[in-house]
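TA notes. Do not distribute before section.
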Amino acid sequence: MELYLNTTSPYARVVRICAIEKQLDDVKLIWVDPWADDNALLTANPNGKIPVLVTDRGETLSESLLIASYLDGLSPTLSLLGAPNYTDVFALSGLSQGLTDAAFMTVINRKHFGKESDSTVLGVRRQNAIVRCLQRLEDRVSTDVMQSDINLGQIVTGVALSYIDFRLPELQWGESQPLLADWLTRFSERASVKETAFT
């Protein structure tokens, strides 16, 4: 299998952590710059987005949560989907994916249009979404899905929070969400999380 990724994509990091946790050692990492119209990436995924997984059968999968679900089925080691009771895992994954999307688009818009893009209608919506998602996660820290063995929801949550710390450190979200900050500190001790740290 081939996984197209870079070191700063939160979406790619989710997939990479999943592959490590599932002990899938046959995943070949192909490092690309999605902004450079890399020919190999565009051949694998015409929309130029990462991550992209090319399976051993030559099938191309995109979108991080779909790739993660596929990887989960390749190894009996530790179900990341929480089967058969997967609803809570999917709910947490969706919530934290929304947080990732809002943070990522904030970073991209600042890169291309300056920080004043935060003041546009869409920029304000993104900022408000970040605040709401962080508070919802703070309220859920003590739930079973956050405190159980590692699962996809926890991975997406941990990556989203780490991405905000990496790209939007001025938010200092830990001051308002101390329980969530403590959770992230514990989660970040996992070997898979350390190995995939943003650079």
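Switch to the second chain here.
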Amino acid sequence: MRRLGGGLFAFSYTLLFFLFLFGPLVIMVITAFNSSAFPRVVPWECFTTDWFGVLVRNERLMTGLWTSLAIGLAVVAIAVPFGLAGALALADIGPRLRAGLYAVLITPILIPGVVLGISTIVFWSYVGRKLGAGYDTVFFNGLFLTLLGQVAFIASYAMLILSARLQRFDPTLTEAALDLGATPGQAFRKILLPFLKPALGSAAFITFLASFENYNTTVFTILAGNTFTTALASKIRLGTDPSLSALAVIIIAVTLIGAMVQEAHHRRRALLAGGRPERSWLYANPLTRLLTHPAAILLILLACASAIVWQASHHDAQACRADILSEKQRLQEKLLQEQQQRMQQRQTETPAAPAAPSNNPSPFGGAFNPGSLAPK
């Protein structure tokens, strides 16, 4: 009996946990296909895919998306080399200097993004004024300030990832290469960089995501411009619609496709690393070997997604919308008639007001006659 109660509690807790995690995502997916002008699940009106078109036609969001992509790529190109330099410096210096340098390099992460954004604007505007630069120069450009403000703290993320990888590196490998006649540049390119390749990929991915989703710093440094996050925040603040749910559906779909391809790649590498892959049913014939390749899985998923998008784009919800609109109009007319009937019934039940004196043409009974206020 005790085991049964513990199992029921564990099942209930797990169910609530997953509902807490995935419940909002399920709700957003449902609202993306509801024709209601406000994101809601009930009452359900019509199945539609028009909100995806509304999202694509939103010029401000699309412009902010391209701006965020450009800034993110530029941040990766600058922050990853800076992070690599910081990680190499931490690995080469002594333990006493390492603690001080680590504190300096990690400090930008601890500073609030609002402070970083405001300080970036103040500092570079001061530099521009001292140099006599006008407002059309780079010192007052939102893209330039956003790039500098984000690199100031995102480079620390790359440094942490690369430092963790460098702790597993054996420095005797580069020393042996130098003893065999290799130059420091050759030892760095042919020994250290291949070892850091997985960490460099992870650092580039993390820095890009950190730049793309950043809001606290970007909202100040972008000035009059817009990134995807700032445009999205302003849209939510001024009024939302299901097009944001459509955006969530796109992000979820891209994430699921990437996760499936990554899982297939990981399983394939584990199978090849274990030896004798021909014993697995995946390699029993060339067809299954081809279909289980990560590239083939990616193509299959993209083909399925394209077919779904094509099919959904040909779905017409105008007839259903017209029926819903006529039903709302009919209900509104019914409510209006009921209100008019109640008003007429109330007028018949209410006693008539006393008529005004014949010598007073005012319908208010002489209440506003100046002579009515004189003392009797």
